[in-house]
Amino acid sequence: MRxxxxxxxxxxxxxxxxxxLDIKWPKPNLKHQxxxxxxxxxxxxxxxxxxxxxxxxxxxxxxxxxxxxxxxNFYTISFLFKDATVMISGDRTYQESVSNKQxxxxxxxxxxxxxxxxxxxxxxxxxxxxxxxxxxxxxxxKPQTDxxxxxxxxxxxxxxxxxxxGGRP
Amino acid sequence: xxxxxxxxxxxxxxxxxxxxxxxxxxxxKKFTFSPVGKLTPTKSGQGRNGDNYIYAPGIRFPIESAPxxxxxxxxxxxxxxxxxxxxxxxxxxxxxxxxxxxxxRRWGMPLCPGGKGHQGVDIRTATCEKKKYYAxxxxxxxxxxxxxxxxxxxxxxxxxxxxxxxxxxxxLVKRGAKVSRGDxxxxxxxxxxxxxxxxxxxxxxxxxxxxxxxxxxxxxxxxTSLVDAYKRLLRGNP
Lengths: 169, 238
What we know:
The complex is a heterodimer. Chain A contains six helices and twelve strands.
């Protein structure tokens, strides 16, 4: 009931201002950011202008078939699996701000650090690191039966293998 | 002297234009929509009543042409939990529109009253025919991802839009492509990988909301933005 009361009030207080989020840059991990075996060009060239920490699962950091779409404010990297696609993206922009802090804090507080869920047949992970919002998704050719999309095991495994491979202030 | 005459004539012409706006088209006259957050049937869940905020102002309607019908797939006629009948029943292809953001689902949605629900809305095309009507870019931006049945557009605004169930072979864009508002993306179909769904476009919008130094990325309600966009489409000014 409390939520019902909050919602109509809360969103009359949204402001359609947009901007760049403040990033709390982590200490560089040279092992990941300057590895002894260089990452493939598709990755290094693709993310060279990105101004947010770029995370990808370490097991696919050397996948030359990855597809990188990026500019200074966001990146999306896709990996093609057999009958499935994996995508990770990060974005340092925001589109709205809220002036009523107490109300919205309740939603923020209720948001766990990472969520793993199946949405419309797509297995997803959502998390925030260093002030940046990231999404990871596995999309399967057979979303109802493919364990990669019905069970959180793979998405959790990918999440636990994330390493920062680039990005600069 | 000539100049002196031209000015009043121009003023008169402008006044005439203002007094006689373009008459409403038949489709504009027909178009009706139920209030935001009012889910139909009521058993389909609880929407965000009263949230009339337009989260994505000025976007283009995501289907190239009208008419289009925004209503529930799951609880509509022929749907999984809907009345018995054909998915192509003509009642599914009628106004008024019904919001279906927050419709019952099991996944988390912080902006839905129950904390769970549908992340976007389902839109039927003019007729119950797949691979006939194009989905189009709602704003200028970049195609960031193409999956088995998903096309994702990151708009210049930073908002991300998902188009689900397009016919894969018909998709006209590639990952990384820059698109302009109104560009064709692919044909609306019933593609959900090897599992088929009903013929419709699932459309959702995700954006980041900031408070103090923190932020969260959420699926925001598309209904009011789409009503606004559809009215412009019907007006011939998408």
